[in-house]
Each structure stands twice: as structure tokens, then as C-alpha cells.
Amino acid sequence: MVSKIVTSLIRIIFLGLLFVFLFYPDRFHIKFDYPGFPQSDSWYVRLAKFAFWFLLMIEILRIFYYGVVKSKAKGLIANVITIAIPLIVTLIFLEIVFMYIPQSHEGVLSKASQIWWEKYWKPVNSLGYHDKEIIEEVGKKQVLVIGDSFAAGHGLKDVNERFSNILEAKLGADKYTVYNLGMSGADTRDEAKRLQEFPVKPDIIILEYFPNDIEKVGREKGLTLSGAEPYADLNGPLATIVKRFYLPNFIYWQLPHAGFSTFEKFVQTAYTDTTVLNPHLRDLSAITSYRDSTKAEMYAVFIPFLFQIDKSAGYTKPVEEFLRAKQVKIVGINDGIVKIPEKERVVGKNDGHGSATLNGLIADRLYNAMH
């Protein structure tokens, strides 16, 4: 029995080497690179982690069986081990379970959100957009939707719940093709560049606008976000454990964390400071100039902070007025949003992106505006 325990301990030592490379690769300047990194988790890396935990459980249970059960050991140490082993095995089992539980998260901060991204962020076309491939079609109107993660459909498990896809179905896929150029983290300047580089000439342009679209210009002009960064409330070994392991990471993100960065003060300053606002409007001019060059129709949908609708409308009013002056048709949705219960406006507890219900509202309003 002693020899069996010793061989298990030797195998655990070798598993320890695998543990270091799997969970602490950065300490050895090792980087796991795969499609979707770092937003997406890798199914293959998780499979390797699953194998590690499974083999570790076998060795722990083997030591317990030969060291306590079969040897009929008694005393304080045996009692402590008898209590500790089931607890350790249960924690390992839960860690394995939570390696496969997806949950969308604003900003892809959590490990569960990386799992969600790997599972649901499909399709992705050859240009990197969360959309179908581009095909040449004669006789159909080409609609280009530009925007950030709200346009891209962050948090929606089915791409057909996204407003651009719903709009295409309502318009008729035999008459219209709607391409979605939404990109998480994009601002107005990025959107103008992507629109100009897109290989399809539009008949219709739809701009999805969110109050943080001014963020990049604001940062360039010296504005900063207030509040603590994620995980800043953790220190020492606890921070390492929460960041690297699935179960504690999932638990961490279910708890409230006061003091995280907020856009409210940032955008309030940005939209009232002409040194920030004017460069932002120039970025918008690049979009309207492209619209003019293609003779396309243009619509704009302003998605507010979904729990601060009136404030958002006040912040972005200068942008709305600017676009109206450029003959952009503004499609209002705020009166419809207030009729949606707050919990049904967003995709989840940790993700403030628009729900399928909200996307349906946007599609309906756009369809009505286009007819």
C-alpha cells in the first residue's frame, strides 16, 4: 500500500508541472494563442485543464483509499483527511463544471464571458465581423449597419435576435441585404474607417450610436474614467486565484463591486467640452461625407444608457442635432424602451447590452422609418 501511495505522489508531482504551464503560463513567458484570443476561451485549453483536474482527482482518491480506507487508519490525522478529501474533490468537480458554464459579461471581463464568446460568437466572416460572408448580389439594396458592441449583438446567443438580422427579415431578404459592421469597442472614428474600407457600396447606412462613442476622443483630450478597475478590490493570492480559476471567478462576478469605472461623469464632461465634442463631430462628418459620396440614405439610432434614458438623451443631444443638420434621419426608440421592464432591456445581470426585446424594438422602428 505504501508503494501505491508513493507512486501516486510521484504522479502528482508531474501533474504539478502541468498545472504550472496550464494555469500560470505567463510566469514562463508562454502564451496560448488561438482564434478569438483574448475575448474567447479555447475549448482545447479547457480540455487540457479538464484532463489535469480529472487525473488529480484520481490520484487524490487513490491516496485516500490506500492511506485511510484500506489501511483502516484511525486518529486525528485520519479524521481530518476523511473530512478534507471529499471537500477537495467537490471543489475540483465544481471547478470542472464551471469551466463549461457561459455567461455574457460587459467588456468580456470574466472567464465565464470568455466561454460565452467561444460558444456563441458565431458566425465570424473573413473580414472579422460577427456576420455572414459578403456575396455579390444584383438587384438587391445593400444596407450597412455600423456601430459598436450593441450593433454587433454582444450578449445575444442567436445572431437572428440582433436588430440588423431582424430588419433584413422584415425588409425581405430577396430585396435587401443587410451587412453588420458592428465591432466591440469601436468608436466613431473606427466606424468611419471601417465603413469606407468595406467592399460593398451602400444604398442605406444605419448608424447605431451609444454615449461612449466619444470615449476615444475624450481620452485623447485628457479625460479619464473615475473609479477602480476590475479585480482592484482583491489582493495577494486571492487575486491570483480569482483571475485564473473558473469557480472563484464566477462567484466573484455574481457579487456587487462598488467603485468600478463609470462613464456617467466622463460623458457628461465630454459632450459639454467643445475641445472634445468638436473633434468628435468631425469624426461623424467623415461618415456623412461618405454617405454623400455614395448617395446613400442614412439613419441613426441612439441607444441610451438603458437605466438612465433621460440623462443619456441630454448628453448626446448635440450629436443628434448635428446629424439632423446633415439630413440624417433620427430613429427614436426611447419612448419604446421605457415601456420595457428594466430587467428585460439587457441581456443579463452582468451584461448591460441590449436584449432580444430591445433589438426587436430597434428593428421595428427602423423598418417603419424606411417605409
Topology summary:
Blueprint: H1 2-23, H2 43-69, H3 76-98, H4 111-120, E1 141-146, H5 149-152, H6 163-171, E2 176-180, H7 188-197, E3 204-209, H8 215-220, H9 236-244, H10 246-254, H11 264-270, H12 274-294, E4 297-302, H13 309-315, H14 317-325, E5 329-331, H15 334-337, H16 342-345, E6 346-348, E7 351-354, H17 356-369
Parallel strand pairs: 1-2, 1-3, 3-4, 4-5
Antiparallel strand pairs: 6-7
Helix pairs in contact: 1-2, 2-3, 3-10, 6-17, 7-12, 9-10, 12-14
Tell me what you see in this structure.
The chain is of the alpha/beta class. The protein has 2 domains: 2-100; 123-224 and 261-369, SGNH hydrolase (Rossmann fold). It has helices at residues 2-23, 43-69, 76-98, 111-120, 149-152, 163-171, 188-197, 215-220, 236-244, 246-254, 264-270, 274-294, 309-315, 317-325, 334-337, 342-345, 356-369; strands spanning 141-146, 176-180, 204-209, 297-302, 329-331, 346-348, 351-354. The strands form 2 sheets. The protein has a 5-stranded parallel beta sheet, with helices on both faces. Strands 6-7 form a two-stranded antiparallel sheet. Strand 6 (346-348) and strand 7 (351-354) form a beta hairpin. The longest helix is centred in the N-terminal third of the chain and has 27 residues, at 43-69. The chain starts with a helix and ends with a helix. The model has no long low-confidence stretch (mean pLDDT 91).
